[in-house]
Structure formats: structure tokens, C-alpha cells
Amino acid sequence: MARRYDSRTTIFSPEGRLYQVEYAMEAINHAGTVIGILASGAPPATTGEEAKTGSEDVAMSDASPVATTKPAEPAGVKKGKRRTGIVLAAEKKVTSKLLEKEEGTGEKIFLINGNLLSGVAGYTADANSLVNYSRNVAQGHLMSYDTDMPVEQMVKRLCDLKQGYTQFGGQRPFGVSFLIAGYDPHHQFQLYSTDPSGNYAAWKATCIGNGNSTATSLLRQDYKDSMDLDEAIVLALKVLSKTMDDTTLSSDRVEFAVISTDEETDQPHVRIYKPAEIDELLKAQGLTKVPESETAMKS
């Protein structure tokens, strides 16, 4: 029955389904996993008992005949600030060891603008086309308004294009989903996902690709609203290692990036990790393979 209605994107089935769009979304489930985690760094919420105890302590101190005051902190001493930002971690599909790779280029994580970062799952050629479109849109906005494009506005422009390709005959939907991480002064850090139908949603933590069900379950268990950037990095690597076939990872199979704010200028700062930095990060978490030379020396 489905074969009568899946030849064009403009034909609805009797059940109200667009099969070509569903097939495009199914292609995402065979792509490498991409994980996004928003680290707000908010302090943990105070429970009712803690608030009550705190108020009782204050009342007791006020009633006490001998008032004690907390000594002032020395001038120039700053408390440690919890880092905020967004982490993107992606699984690369290794096609061949003979493939020559250009320095500084990736296949899963792309820089769109100084305040925008994207992770993709699906057809690489479709992703490249949409990344180039997004970069042109971001630069056009910067040229017109002399300011970085707001994150949700970029997501809407991208999804408008993707939705248009599901509405006209003679075209096929884009077979790629995006995770878009960004920062703007009005809404701070934001994480969005898009799919081939043109839908988008905002998330605190999410995943696209072939391991999305396992990753989503792990994120539900371990994600905390009070998580800072360092904790989000650890969680992203942990979840990625459990969604991949091999529990030991390497820079050949992983791409990693972080968007945060500069401590001095408070402007967005994007860092896409180099292979050596990824290996160092994996080694610190005990997720990398031990070189054969080191194994031989230990034995």
C-alpha cells in the first residue's frame, strides 16, 4: 500500500503520512551519533528542609545576646566561577585508514559563526550544503545589523529551507538532522535539534543518530540542571562511549567541540578540539586504547 504514495513528497497516504519525509528521517538513524549537552552551571536548588534550617539558624543568631559576624573576604579574592556552555560530541564513521584528511576539517561538527556551532547526522553532502547556507545567512545578518545572528532565528531560517523541500514536487527532503549550539545576549546558551521535516526543538541535553535511544536514556538518568561545563564534558564522553560499539575510543572515531564565553570579554568562544587534544581528553577519562608499546613494556 505504501508504494502507491511514496514516489513524491507531495502525496499524502490515506493515513496522512508523507513517506519520503519518513524515509529521510529514517536515514538519520543509520548515521553516527551526535550528543549535545547544555551546561547552565546553575547552583543546586535548595530543599525545603535546608531552607527551614537556614532560617532557624538566622533566627537563633538574631536572638543570641552575642552577635557574631562573618569576617569579610580579603579584597581582590574572587570565588571560583562555574563554567557554562554547550558540549557537542560526535561519532565518526571510519571509512578507510587510507583516506587523506585535511587539517582542521571534520565530517560531523562545523563552525557556522562566532556564536554558532553545529553537529550533523545523515548524508554528508546534504550537511555540507546546509552548513554553507547557514554560514551565508549568518554573515548576511552580521553585515546588515553589525551583530551576531540570534540562535533561534538561525534555526528558523534553516528549518524553513528544509520544510520547503518537503512541499514541492521534483525535490527530495534533506537527509540530515542538525544539533545547533549557540549563544546570544538575550537568551544566553541554547541547544536546538532539527530534522528533515523542518521541525525543531530546544533541549537541555539530546542526541541524534543511531544511538539516540540509548544515549537519551543515559542523559535522563545523569543530567542535572546544576551541571557546569567540566561535568558536561565528562558526561558527554561517558554517554558517547556507551553508545558506540567499542568502549575504548580514539580521535579517529570522535569529534569534540565546546562553545562557552570568554571570562574577560564575556563574548562567545568556540573551541573545536584537535585530534591530539581529543586523545588527551579521552586518556584523562580512561576511555582511550593503551598503545601496544606501553602494553609490551608493562608485561
At a glance:
This protein is an alpha+beta fold and 299 residues long. Helices cover 35% and strands 20% of the residues.
Q: List low-confidence stretches.
A: 53-79
The name CATH uses for the topology is Glutamine Phosphoribosylpyrophosphate, subunit 1, domain 1
Strand ordering within the main sheet? 8-1-2-9-10
Number of domains: 1
Whole-angstrom Rg? 24 Å
Beta-strand content bin:
15-25%
Query: For the report, how would you describe the main beta sheet?
Result: 5 strands, antiparallel
Supply the helix-strand structural class. alpha+beta
Count of individual helical segments: 8
> CATH homologous superfamily - what is it?
Aminohydrolase, N-terminal nucleophile (Ntn) domain
Name of the CATH first level: Alpha Beta
Mean pLDDT reading: 82
N→C terminal distance: 63 Å
CATH architecture: 4-Layer Sandwich
Fraction of residues in H or I helices: 25-40%
Q: Got a strand count?
A: 10
Q: Name the shape in a single word.
A: globular
Q: What is the element string, with H for helices and E for strands?
A: HEHEEEHHEEEEHHEEHH
Description:
The protein is of the alpha+beta class and 299 residues long. The protein has one domain (2-41, 87-93, 114-285): Aminohydrolase, N-terminal nucleophile (Ntn) domain (Glutamine Phosphoribosylpyrophosphate, subunit 1, domain 1, 4-Layer Sandwich), CATH 3.60.20.10. Helix content is 35%, strand content 20%. The chain has helices at 19-28, 48-63, 124-145, 151-164, 212-222, 229-243, 275-284, 292-298, and strands at 34-39, 85-91, 109-113, 116-122, 176-184, 188-194, 200-202, 205-208, 254-261, 268-272. β3 and β4 form a beta hairpin. α5 (212-222) runs antiparallel to α6 (229-243). The longest helix is centred in the middle third of the chain and has 22 residues, at 124-145.
